[in-house]
Amino acid sequence: MQKNIQIYAFEPIASTFAVLEDNIRLHSLEKVRLFNCGLSSENNPDKIFTFYPNMAGNSTTKPNDIIADTDEIKSQPDAEEITDLFADLFVEQTQVKCQVRTLSSLIDELGIDTIDLLKIDVEGEEYEVLQGIEDKDWPKIKQIVGEFHDKKGRLEKVKTILTHQGFHIILEKRELLPSNFVDTYTLYAIR
Q1: pLDDT of residue 59
Q2: In this structure, how many other beta carbons lie within 10 angstroms of the beta carbon of residue 152?
């Protein structure tokens, strides 16, 4: 096991960040550095997120995608159980301003020379995270894994970027719900 591993974790929503801080402290994880910001294609101190208190992990800058997915769920035959579940999870929401940064700005600031694994799970902003990586930083990234949503052709754009940067891509469709309307994939990209 490598002893010089450093983990960088990013969370833009303040209340969720506080829970992350508590968990890191509770488990005495000294090799984890936390950042109260999200990753995106721009540095922006006032990016608007929709925060879902009952489903904090699905908070997003793209709430219309959640609404579209929820509407699609409701239109499916035999969707009553799923619709009831979603009714509770996404009914309450708050708009919050959060800071987002590009990955390259953080790489520069922190002096990072190698990223062995970049894990991305950003609820619809995957393409934007990749856009925030400058050409000079791509060779530093050895592997990528993440949850990627295929909305409005974004997955094809992601594949184009990664292929251009020399990655071999493996996609696994995630069958989170018993229908084919939510196109969510686990993406593995390896040099």
Answers
A1: 72
A2: 12
Assigned token pair, 14: 């303040």
Q: How far apart are CA 186 and CA 120, in angstroms?
A: 10
CA 13 to chain centre: 13
Q: Domain for residue 2, yes or no?
A: no
Q: What is the CATH number of the domain that holds 77?
A: 3.40.50.150
Gap between the Cα atoms of 148 and 124, Å rounded: 7
Amino acid making up residue 29: L
Helices (H), the chain: 14-26, 63-75, 80-90, 103-110, 126-131, 154-164
- The residue segments making up the domain with residue 150 are 7-190
**pTM of whole model > 0.85?**
no
Q: Rounded to an integer, what distance in angstroms lies between the CA atom of residue 179 and that of residue 101?
A: 35
pLDDT at position 89 over 70 = no
d(CA 81, CA 59): 22
| Amino acid at position 123, single letter | E
pLDDT tens per residue, range 128-175: 999 999 999 999 999 999 999 887 888 999 999 999 999 999 999 877
Number of Cβ within 10 Å of residue 149's Cβ equals: 23
Provide the number of structural domains found in the chain: 1
Q: Evaluate whether residue 97 is within a structural domain.
A: yes
Q: Identify whether 132 is part of a domain.
A: yes
The average pLDDT across 91-106 equals: 90
pLDDT at position 57, please? 72
- Tokens matching residue 129: 């995270």
Residue type, 114: T
